[in-house]
From TrEMBL:
GO biological process: methylation
Protein name (record): Methyltransferase type 11
InterPro entries: Methyltranfer_dom (IPR025714), SAM-dependent_MTases_sf (IPR029063)
Chain coiled-coil ranges: none
Superkingdom per UniProt: Bacteria
Record SUPFAM superfamilies: S-adenosyl-L-methionine-dependent methyltransferases
Keywords attached to this entry: Membrane, Methyltransferase, Transferase, Transmembrane, Transmembrane helix
GO molecular function: methyltransferase activity
Amino acid sequence: MYYDPIKKTLGQVFNRTPWLRRLFYHLLDLLLLRTWHVHRELRRWAKGRTQESLHILDAGSGYGQYTYWLSGLSAEWNILAVDVKDDQVADSNQFFRQIGRRNVQFAVQDLVLYQEPNSFDLALSVDVMEHILEDVEVFRNIHASLKDGGMLLISTPSDQGGSDVHDDGETSFIEEHVRDGYNIREIQQKLSTAGFERIEARYAYGEPGQISWRLSMKYPILMLGKSRLFFILLPFYYAVVFPFCLLLNWLDARTVHDSGTGLIVKAWK
């Protein structure tokens, strides 16, 4: 099933007013378990830095929710958010101008080609690398674009059931994925090959997170893939499952997992 048409429809609904877009971002922050893990790592990175003039790259910005969250932490930070989708970049630039966040700029860029040497203190890549075949080239470009001591933060599916693939004969239900998930050693090796000197990787989406992901993401996406009429039923569906998903997300984000369907990776130049 192709996920991009559903994402585009959601974007069209919530792009109608700045208030709706802000609401959309807050809902994503609560529902998406990866956001819980990514925000925790970003808070650690940001501690003691909010008064510094820093440069951040959102590498594969999508809807722009992480750029929105980061730009709210400090007006001193300059954020460049890049994506390959022209419409999302245009919508995001318009929204951020409307809300007056002048420290943010969105641009159309291909991460396989984009490089801005020694420019950024932080780069983040959230649910992007499973969509890009030439991953080592992207890692090399980000490494070159970071300043010395700069950090790359990655969230991506693992090979322990990421994309809901558990056996060799199965494929991801998201057609846009070029890989189902990374082996934890594989991604560490690729980052090392790209030049990163210090790398930390851990599992996310343990048992609580996997249940939450199915309830909050997989089942609704499958329903919307069958018919857009399910948009009418979504508020009622989430009214039932939302409290359970919040509890499961909270448990997953506060547990150390021996295995999981997601990876959180940090790498320093």
